[in-house]
Design a protein that fits this description.
The protein has eight helices and 14 strands. The chain has 333 residues and is an alpha/beta fold. Helix 4 runs antiparallel to helix 5 and helix 6 packs across helix 7.
Length: 333
Amino acid sequence: MKKFVNKPDRFVDEMLEGVLAAYPEQLASCSGNMRNIVREKKGDKVALVSGGGSGHLPLFMGYVGEGLLDGCAVGGVFQSPSADQIYEITKHVDSGKGVIYLYGNYSGDIMNFEMSSEMAEMDNIKTAHVVGNDDVASAPKGEEHKRRGVAGIFYIYKTAGAAAEEGADFDEVLRIAEKAKASVHTMGVALSPCIIPEVGVATFSIGENEMELGMGIHGEPGVSRTTLKSADAVTDTMMEAILADAPLSPGDEVSVLINGLGATPKEELYIIYRRVAQTLASKSVKVFHAYVGEFATSMEMTGFSISLCRLDAELKRLLAKSARSPFFEQAQL
């Protein structure tokens, strides 16, 4: 294992020490736990809280900021944060207007966020849950409740965060989050595994000339393993799967997110986006805004994902709003 670490069991905490030291004007920790990350300044609004395992930066913690999240519970690498962490953050960020939990469809996260809700209820803190499930490769159409949440949760953070920042009430922010969730569809591909520092070995093995379509961000199995294809051929296969699951019509408008998994050069991501843009143009589908970069990684995994978010006037307006965190910044579009 080659990594720039000190002690593997201190990987997450030392990373957080660095993040908090780098951005003290934007981020803080609460309740004496460095893994409870919150906005430095508490907002008088509906609060949004996320959480998940480390190893995915900028997901999840990277979206704590203005127009985005108010807090995030940080777990170990690929491990869920605890219910106590989520509860402490919930108490810290609540301004009396309620807290909405936004997280991925993983059993440990679901269990711990639900436990936090039960504890918050005893403090008369209103909560609700929106569980991201945008990975079209992880379950067939009609069984969306079984799908994994991957990079597309970015769109839930961005639109719900904008609505909350504007002062929308609890039910309205929840409606926007659910609407964004239903509008996002994602598929990924991987060329290499990653290494969890505390384990020290690759999470899976794959041949030098192989790729795995549909692989999850923790190395979960995909839908097929084949020989490596050209960028255009891979992109075409992924777009066919996404569009079969969520068909688009001429005149529709979307946002596109091309997400690198940790070790894919941006140059390659733009080659992918080029093909996505060509495909959408051939169908007379307009791209409102493209995001190309790293939004939900898997340590040093080589690969990428494509997310399409179908927009209406409401989601488009909220997506266009400014936002700022240490890991993501957008001016008004």
